[in-house]
Amino acid sequence: MLDNSDSYVTEDGRTIGGVVMEMKNITLRFGGVVAIKDISFDIREGEIRAIIGPNGAGKSSMLNVISGFYNPQEGDVYYKGALRPPMKPYQVAQQGIARTFQNIALFEGMTVLDNIMTGRLNHMKAGLFAQAIWKGKAEAEEVANREVVEKIIDFLEIQSIRKTPVGRLPYGLKKRVELARALAAEPSILLLDEPMAGMNVEEKEDMSRFILDVNDEFGTTIALIEHDMGVVMDLSDRVVVMDYGKKIGDGTPDEVRSNQAVIDAYLGVSHD
Ligand SMILES: Nc1ncnc2c1ncn2[C@@H]1O[C@H](COP(=O)(O)OP(=O)(O)OP(=O)(O)O)[C@@H](O)[C@H]1O
What distance in Å separates the CA atoms of residue 85 and residue 77, rounded to the nearest whole number? Predict the structure, then answer.
């Protein structure tokens, strides 16, 4: 169960609830490489939580632990107040954690609409057998799924490309379609893997606005990893900073910005 007793309202009027996910003393090794060293942090319901750090800091590894791609050798993951046993990524997705990928993972030959519909798969209860013998139920489900998807298409302003094969879209729009597909799952936590990577300034501004609007409009909890410190500071409620697999900062953007260890890491000052 989620404990919302210490929820609060932000300056811009959003409600931040209790801790929805807690990472406790996570260590992840690849052979001799320690990608994550004894890191703990939490994610609160309704917040935008960033994990930042220079190249090789361990951000992707951490995102992959959250989404079940990697199971850490040490430490525990708590989700909605319960210890999460080691799980496969599809089981984590079924628990309501959706993600996007740094290297866009869409079906290039399929239309925007069909790509976004694949985000509804976890919500399709009528199996193939039911669809064969009980057409009505499957049809009702299809209509309900389409409603969710249409709302997202409107929201992300992609009506005009709904029938376009994804392979023909420019990079920035592909990223938006990927966001739409993840949102179609109506996730409890949305994980964004470097959502602004490879974008020009205008595309970055658009994506920032959509991330803020998604959080505001749907109340979606968002955890994102990002290499570039600048782009997440205006977006995030709280930021974890990683460097060489360790957590070197955790707090509000202002707290993190004035943290000397963080400044050193980004300037490339050497340390042990
Ligand atoms: N599958 C893997 N096998 C072996 N080593 C890995 C693997 N994945 C990551 N590592 C190592 O773990 C460390 C952390 O890598 P990770 O990709 O998590 O960092 P990152 O902060 O996401 O970096 P970037 O910003 O460059 O994507 C690095 O030293 C990396 O080489």
Answer: 8
